[in-house]
Amino acid sequence: MSEPLLVVEKASKSFELSRGVVFSRSVGSVRAVEDVSFAIEAGQTIGLVGESGSGKSTTASLVLDLNKPSAGSIRYNGVEINRRDKEAWLEYRRSVQAVFQDPYSSLSPRMRVRDIIAEPLETTTKMSRQEIDRRVAEVVEQVGLPPDTPRLYPHEFSGGQRQRIALARALAPKPKLIVLDEPVSGLDVSMKAQVLNLLKELQESSKVAYLLISHNLADVRYLCDWMIVMYLGKIVESGPVERVFAEPLHPYTRALLSAALPHHPDHVVKEEIILVGEIPSAVNIPKGCSFNPRCTYAMPICRELVPARVGIRPQHEAACHLYPEVVAASGGTPASKEN
Amino acid sequence: MALLEVENLSTHFFLRRGTIKAVDHVSFSIEAGETLGLVGESGSGKSMVASSLLRLIAQPGRIVGGAIRFEGVNLLSLDEKQMRSYRGRRMSMILQDPLSSLNPVLTIEDQVGEGIAIHDKLSGAALRDRVIEVLKLVGIPAAEKRLRDYPHHFSGGMRQRVVGAIALACRPQFLIADEPTTSLDVTIQLQYLNLLREIQQRDGLAMLFVTHDFGVVSKMCDRVAVMYAGMIVETASVREIFNNPCHPYTKALIESVPEVDEKVDRLSSIQGQPPSPLARPKGCPFVTRCPVAMPRCAGEMPPETKISEQQQVRCWHYV
Alpha-carbon dihedral of residues B274, A116, A193, B160, nearest 10 degrees? Predict the structure, then answer.
């Protein structure tokens, strides 16, 4: 089997905390992401879910090469992205694009839409002006904006249309992967449905892969094939979306699913799990499993030993000591318990 | 008699470019202990209804007509001093963003205590005891030790609890919650909604819950009013709005939101965008996007039609 489009292997990122301005000194570090591994195949959509502070956006910034991992590697088409020559670097910049959450701050108010969309083409390709103009017109049509869009400025558009412009910019260099960081959270319901549908259609026609960062489980279920649940910088569960929804393995995933309120009053949540407290600060991570202080099922071993992430069902992994496989893989002695 | 009766309320904004009818002939009522959800997209006028109820509309906006009757008293006929005895005391409000609704340079004690000191004329130890009591009510751990803390010492979820404490400090009968959980994480949202529910059941609080999230509506509300372009286009019980949505906008809105508990292949989306507030259609405001619009819809405003005891709709298809 050939290597997937993008492979993230044991990537960690910590940020130094410093005090003082002139003679600044390090006073510790924040672990934003630790030991994160996953792979994206061409044309696939992976959803990265978790609450604020879970490390989703840091993971995205590593994939986008906006931050360098402190440890671990990220490979694109089998090549380590931090060890590339200029050519390969440009190729990566062209092939991996991003759409951010807020379409008001992610588009320069002083640039015409034509220049906004053309920018990635001008910096990463050798296309001529005419070719660029043709490509801009093409993507503007693809995202369903009127043909006179390129000569206008962003302020002349609504939130939903701006997000279409951001998407057009991401599509312009014909990328292989688009990182979507909460692309519809800033949009109204009716605009949101339009953009979600558009994302689906574009993927069907161009076979681009998506890495969707979202806190909205309904959006993830709608758009993704595969999902990864993060908590305090670590992956706690991953698997095919439908399998995770049908049988969530990690207690945190169960709590997240139970907190996503169904719309119809007759569709009641099977078990309402109300987590105590809040996500702890990344400066002060609990010992053992990071989730143990909020977990209803916490056992003594959870306070001692960091759970490893292993397959519990086919393709479906979790890092939780409730499963004997995990205890064994983490180097503990499996407790003699019934389930 | 309902606790709150709103009749033909209209709030307009007078700009040089024209008049914006932010709230246009809106009527609804809320009983004691009941929760009415107000749903709609941004710009539909939901928050303007909320601010109008407390008469907190700033220039160039003005409430131009209608009546807001609270326990039978028309709030629009009160002078500013009389109105102040309602705000924060009998009716109060929780806003969306806890960071901007708290003052960063005042302690939690000062902010929660302000309303109690003004309305209940408490001071010193009695005031402090009440503040601690209210902070405990909203579930702030070790409340006694947090009085001298500032908003930045609290996390987002805890800040929103402090905002809740301010709103509930004087034991109001009516609470307006304007998207109180939009900025919170889902697990924290669930904690907060359950807390509001508990307090409501204990005190028999009436609530107006402004939101765009149908999950929140189902969990919190008894009835729903759907707003579009400044008008309420449909009112119904929560069950009716999902089982038998009548207005084409309500139908489209419900169908366009992805659900957590089922996998759909394609969302149905509402085409186009809401009309500009300066150039609204003459007839039904939804006519420009409505899949079943008739010639009549563009020319004349549909009247309100009663579908059932609790359900009313403004659409020519039901007249």
Answer: -80
